[in-house]
Write a structure and sequence with these properties.
Length: 283
C-alpha cells in the first residue's frame, strides 16, 4: 500500500448549513459516499478509506450537527440528512456514485437512494435500516448525551470513552477525542456534536412510527443492488429485522459479519472492507 496521506478537509454550504467533509482524492472513475452514524463523524471511516483509496474515490461528510459541520436550527430529520448528502454529490459534480451508510447514516442513505434512483449505483447498509431496536438505541443515546459538560484534559476525555467502549483500541479512542471533541474558550474538552441530536430518537412514538413506515416504503422503492451488513453480535439490528429488510427490497443481499456488533467498521475492519469492496466493485 502507498504511504498514508491524510484526506483533504473541505467545506461547502448546503440547505443553510455549513457542511464539513473529507475527500480522499480523485483518481478513480468510481466514487463512494460514506454516511456515519448518530453522534459520530467523518473520521470514523479513516481506516476503511485509507485501505481502499487506490481503488475508489472516498468522500465522507460530517452530517449536520456532527463533527465540524454546523448545527441546525430547523432540526434533524432523515429528509434533511439525505438532502445534505445529495447537495454534497451535486457540489462535487458526481454523476453517479456508490453509497454506504451506518446506522443513522443507513436510514438517510435509504431516503437518498429512493428519491434519486438515477444517482446511486450500489447501496450498502451497515447494521441499519427500518426495524432497528429504537428502545435500545434511545437508551444508548441518552447515556451518550447525558455526559459531563467537559473535561480538563484530553486524557480525561479519552478515559471517559474507554469506560464506555472497553474493547476499542487506543487509536480508536484517540480518534474519538481528536475529531469528536474540541477544546473550548475555557480550556475544557467538550463534545462537538449538537446535543439537540438526541431528539432524532427522542421524538414522540407516533412521529417515530410515521418515519419508520416512510423508510420501509422508501426501501421498497429502491431498485439498485443493496447489501445489508449485520454485525453477528449486534443488539440494535436483530436477525429478524435484518431478514425483514432483506425481503422488503427488490434486490437486497444480507451478509452477517462475525465477531462484530453494531459498529462493524470498528469491530471487524478487514471483514467490513472486504465485503464492501467485493460488492461495490462487482461487474
Amino acid at each position: 500500500m502507498n504511504a498514508s496521506r491524510p484526506p483533504i478537509s473541505l467545506r461547502f454550504e448546503a440547505n443553510g448549513i455549513n457542511i464539513h467533509y473529507l475527500d480522499w482524492g480523485e483518481g478513480s472513475p468510481r466514487h463512494v459516499v460514506l454516511l456515519h452514524g448518530l453522534g459520530s463523524q467523518a473520521h470514523a471511516w479513516d481506516q476503511f478509506a485509507e485501505d481502499v483509496r487506490q481503488s475508489i474515490r472516498v468522500v465522507a461528510p460530517d452530517l449536520r450537527g456532527h463533527g465540524e459541520s454546523g448545527h441546525a436550527a430547523d432540526g434533524y430529520t432523515l429528509d434533511r440528512f439525505a438532502a445534505d448528502a445529495k447537495a454534497l454529490t451535486r457540489h462535487l459534480n458526481l454523476p453517479v456514485f456508490n453509497l454506504v451508510g451506518h446506522s443513522l447514516g443507513a436510514l438517510a442513505a435509504i431516503w437518498l437512494a429512493a428519491q434519486y434512483p438515477a444517482l446511486v449505483n450500489r447501496l450498502v447498509l451497515v447494521d441499519g435500516g427500518p426495524g432497528l431496536n429504537l428502545d435500545l438505541a434511545r437508551q444508548g443515546s441518552a447515556d451518550r448525551f447525558a455526559r459531563p459538560l467537559g473535561f480538563d484534559t484530553a486524557e480525561e476525555a479519552k478515559e471517559w470513552h474507554r469506560e464506555r467502549y472497553p474493547t476499542r483500541s487506543d487509536e480508536w479512542l484517540e480518534q474519538r477525542v481528536k475529531y469528536g471533541m474540541v477544546q473550548n474558550w475555557a480550556g475544557k474538552w467538550v463534545f462537538r456534536h449538537d446535543p439537540e441530536l438526541y431528539w432524532v430518537l427522542g421524538r414522540s412514538p407516533q412521529q417515530l412510527q410515521d418515519q419508520e413506515q416512510k423508510t420501509w416504503n422508501m426501501l421498497a422503492a429502491i431498485r439498485c443492488p443493496v447489501l445489508l451488513l449485520r454485525g453477528e453480535e449486534s443488539t440494535l439490528l436483530s436477525p429478524e429485522a435484518a431478514r425483514r429488510i432483506a425481503v422488503a427490497g427488490s434486490n437486497v443481499a444480507l451478509l452477517e459479519i462475525s465477531k462484530a456488533g453494531h459498529s462493524i467498521p470498528a469491530d471487524a475492519p478487514d471483514a467490513f472492507r472486504d465485503a464492501v469492496m467485493k460488492f461495490l466493485l462487482a461487474v
